[in-house]
Amino acid sequence: MKATKYTPTRFVESGNALAVEAGKLLAESFKAKGQEQVLKEKFGITFKEDVSLTTASGAYTTMLSSTMYYAAVQNIKDILGLVNINEDMVRAHGYGAYKIPRLLPTIAYEVAEGAVVNYFDEGVDSITVTPRKVVVGTAITWEIVKRGMNDFVKYVLQNAADAITRKLGSDILNGLAAGASSTNTKTGGLTYSNIIDAEAAVNSATYSSNSVPYGFMADSLVITAADYATIQKDTDWKNVVYRAGAKPGELIVNMQPLMMGNLKIIVSPLLTASTVKALVLDSKKAAMLVKESDLETFEGQIVGRPYDREVVALMSYVLACLYPLAISKITT
How far apart are CA 222 and CA 173, in angstroms? Predict the structure, then answer.
């Protein structure tokens, strides 16, 4: 059967009609760029009989959700790398509440043959979290869909993806700041010395019950955008980070530093917690982002604007700080 060009139709006043229409516009744009195989393999869209079948609407809403989510997370890959991603609830279609085991350090002994082993109760703990949903809506007018304005639809949906980026990234960074142990807080502003002390606090953290080291190794330094500009002017920072490779009498052009010792530098305006200047953490142990859903799209009505509607994007997740001592925050 010959592929036919999708012709926008007048959508209904309820359900996911607009999400389907927007998904079709995106699919047509994909097809125009020669990505028919991607549409077929990933979303089940063939652009033949699928276009006229109402049963194919799920493929278009899936495509819309996937495209928006991909656009969103691309902007915060470094931030997502600061936490472990748990999708157990996504695969099981949700639980409501989720219990996460938290391993606590115990002591291992060398014992002689026939000796009695001492047991410790502090080996395992757990925390229970409940995901919460967050939503963002973006307006799409009747004219946009009616006229098949593919590129403009993508532009509008990108704005929704950007909103998800800001919300998800902000929740992660500010959640890490809120979950950091007060024991590891360094005051006095963002200085080179405070960064060193914060890294040492994370790496030397021990369990209070038996003084056994957790074994954390700090690997990330998150700095607010404004404070990064300040620290780059700090003499100690310039001497160590920028000039460490210089030789006497040698003029070198320094690249923007991406690392400070073992710490990957992540600069973000999304770290907005009051008084917090920076975070030093072990990203492999500090926290877990528990997702109950990937990005889903729905249709909402804009009150007082006939046939102008919005695509509502929804995610359900919660950040769990498993080891507060794996995070050190630097404050004013």
Answer: 8
